[in-house]
């Protein structure tokens, strides 16, 4: 049986202590947002996720979605849960009050997303994609389209998708064939096929709004000829209610390894009526607004899977009796000791814990930069936040999902054979987590984005948004007797990151394949250093609290122990990653294609 209790204490630590130097009350629109409000939201989200979503996770996986008479049906209980989710205002959290939203900070939104993903990842995809569609429409559509569609997306009565992939093209969208023909009334007739469309059809909302990439008749070749169109499942009437069925159908459902309660559809557009979003041939700019939002959310999916796996593994390790402690029986009153006494089980649990808490801290830092980017009155501050968000987005997406899948796999290992069967639910976490490394741009694509676009951008300006604060923190920590034992290995790891960055800059300029060959190791190296930075900062907060005589000694002592574990047992991976980066493309690219 799957178990979950929202890690509210750690979430409060991240929001109110670790990142306390960032005051959301100083940003326009967030003046009234207080820690008490944040606590209330997190408490209610935890209650909803635990009571309404978690009970549907295993049953939804067993039942899956089905296509009946051209309509996709979600598993039993999903429509009712979504109705409660919508009526509770959860679809409106991060949206503009001008369209009925609550305008809450990104940091609180991401923590709620984490709880949703821990308890029911399949369910979370439906409102998650809708919010991405909301952002693309808000940022690029005409005022007329915004007025017609955004309020319905915000209140959750309508949902949204993004339709990119086609059977013959995935990442290389320049090859897409979907066509958009101008009509006399200002609309366009959209014709083509899309695959792997999450939430492409379902029975949760009155209408589904598809954002579709297509090409106009006069479109230039490649990605510079792609436009974005808003295509509703039902054409709205004058009063805003769903009317005539548009030329959009779900032709098939994909049969998948995981996230089976999320409808992944093959979609057909047959002269479907749509409207241009943004400028002609500039569709990728608008779509990337949605994709970048989704990439951060997919990273949170990895964290959610890791947290669920950790809690399940800890519960099992405390109950499962097997063998005796290597230093003598810990529970002589029992036939055997619980497996949590064994060093290798502790290694596995501590690894997942260190990953989860580090990712939660880093994710909150990136999320808060989004608020600065959108709300800060100083253009220079907005630009710095935008630089940081751009740099860290591929790292959050790829690192968090890599670690989330790794954590789910480790969690299964804690269970042993019982993890491989369905009874305990751990194998579902492994299956569900695996897709997060693939969609919204595979993790290899994220690594290429990091080394090919983000590092050289503006002569390395993006890097300064991370390197400078980390250097300052290391300089201070080295002089602190409590923090120096953590800062010293982190300083060496940061030096390795600097060497790797210089190596890629030098080699990659001469030969793009050199940068490509090093990209995955470099992203992982960067991500581990970033997590180390979060653990150094967490340790500083913990030491301060302990010196002040806190009543929560166990919580802060656990932070320090986990920080030490991270620096001693996980951060040393950086040395091997640096060696891989410096090895170059030689052996990787040497074999002729015929030799594979």
UniProtKB/TrEMBL annotation:
Domain called Acyl-CoA dehydrogenase/oxidase C-terminal: residue spans: 282-450
SUPFAM superfamilies cross-referenced by the UniProt entry: Acyl-CoA dehydrogenase C-terminal domain-like, Acyl-CoA dehydrogenase NM domain-like
Family annotation (Pfam families): Acyl-CoA_dh_1, Acyl-CoA_dh_C, Acyl-CoA_dh_M, Acyl-CoA_dh_N
The keyword Cell inner membrane is assigned to this record: no
Keywords from the named record: FAD, Flavoprotein, Oxidoreductase
Co-factor(s): FAD
The keyword Oxidoreductase belongs to this UniProt entry's keyword annotation: yes
Domain Acyl-CoA oxidase/dehydrogenase middle: 162-271
Domain Acyl-CoA dehydrogenase/oxidase N-terminal residues, every copy: 39-156
Domain of life: Bacteria
Residues annotated as domain Acetyl-CoA dehydrogenase-like C-terminal: 473-592
Annotated signal peptide: none
Family label: Belongs to the acyl-CoA dehydrogenase family.
Name under which the protein is recorded: Acyl-CoA dehydrogenase C-terminal domain-containing protein
């Amino acid at each position: 049986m799957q178990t979950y209790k929202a890690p509210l204490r750690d979430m409060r630590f991240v929001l109110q202590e670790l990142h306390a130097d960032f005051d959301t009350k100083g940003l326009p629109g967030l003046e009234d947002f207080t820690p008490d409000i944040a606590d209330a939201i997190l408490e209610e989200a935890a209650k909803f996720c635990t009571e309404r979503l978690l009970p549907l996770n295993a049953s939804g996986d067993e039942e899956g979605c089905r296509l009946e008479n051209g309509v996709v049906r979600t598993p039993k209980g999903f429509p009712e849960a979504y109705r409660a989710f919508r009526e509770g205002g959860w679809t409106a959290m991060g949206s503009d009050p001008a369209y009925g939203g609550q305008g809450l900070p990104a940091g609180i939104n991401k923590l709620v997303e984490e709880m949703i993903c821990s308890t029911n990842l399949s369910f979370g995809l439906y409102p998650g994609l809708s919010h991405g569609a909301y952002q693309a429409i808000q940022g690029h559509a005409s005022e007329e389209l915004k007025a017609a569609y955004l309020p319905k997306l915000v209140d959750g009565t309508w949902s949204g998708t993004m339709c990119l992939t086609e059977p013959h093209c995935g990442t290389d969208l320049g090859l897409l064939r979907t066509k958009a023909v101008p009509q006399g009334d200002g609309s366009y007739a959209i014709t083509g096929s899309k695959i792997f469309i999450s939430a492409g059809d379902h029975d949760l909302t009155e209408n589904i709004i598809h954002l579709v990439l297509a090409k106009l008749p006069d479109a230039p070749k490649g990605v510079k000829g792609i436009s974005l169109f808003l295509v509703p499942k039902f054409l709205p009437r004058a009063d805003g209610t769903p009317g005539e069925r548009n030329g959009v159908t779900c032709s098939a459902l994909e049969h998948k390894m995981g996230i089976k309660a999320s409808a992944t559809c093959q979609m057909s557009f047959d002269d479907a009526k749509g409207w241009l979003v943004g400028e002609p041939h500039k569709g990728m700019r608008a779509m990337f607004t949605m994709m970048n939002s989704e990439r951060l959310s997919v990273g949170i999916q990895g964290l959610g899977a890791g947290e669920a796996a950790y809690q399940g593994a800890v519960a099992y390790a405390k109950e499962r009796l097997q063998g005796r402690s290597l230093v003598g029986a810990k529970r002589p009153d029992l036939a055997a000791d619980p497996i949590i006494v064994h060093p290798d089980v502790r290694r596995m649990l501590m690894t997942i814990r260190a990953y989860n808490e580090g990712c939660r801290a880093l994710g909150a830092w990136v999320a808060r930069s989004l608020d600065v980017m959108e709300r800060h009155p100083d253009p220079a501050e907005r630009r710095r936040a935008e630089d940081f968000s751009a740099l860290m987005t591929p790292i959050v997406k790829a690192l968090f999902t890599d670690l989330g899948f790794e954590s789910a796999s480790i969690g299964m290992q804690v269970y042993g054979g019982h993890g491989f069967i369905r009874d305990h639910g751990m194998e579902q976490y492994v299956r569900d987590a695996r897709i997060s490394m693939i969609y919204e741009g595979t993790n290899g694509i994220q690594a290429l984005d990091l080394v090919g676009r983000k590092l050289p951008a503006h002569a390395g300006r993006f890097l300064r948004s991370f390197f400078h604060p980390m250097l300052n923190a290391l300089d201070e920590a080295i002089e602190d007797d409590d923090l120096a034992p953590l800062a010293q290995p982190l300083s060496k790891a940061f030096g390795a990151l600097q060497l790797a960055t210089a190596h890629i800059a030098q080699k990659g300029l001469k030969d793009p394949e050199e940068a490509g060959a090093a990209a995955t190791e470099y992203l992982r190296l960067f991500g581990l250093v970033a997590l180390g930075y979060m653990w150094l900062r967490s340790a500083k907060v913990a030491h301060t609290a302990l010196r002040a005589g806190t009543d929560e000694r166990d919580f802060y002592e656990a932070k320090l122990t986990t920080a030490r574990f991270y620096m001693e047992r996980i951060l040393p991976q950086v040395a091997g990653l640096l060696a891989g980066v410096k090895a170059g493309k030689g052996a990787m690219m040497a074999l002729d294609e015929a030799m594979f």
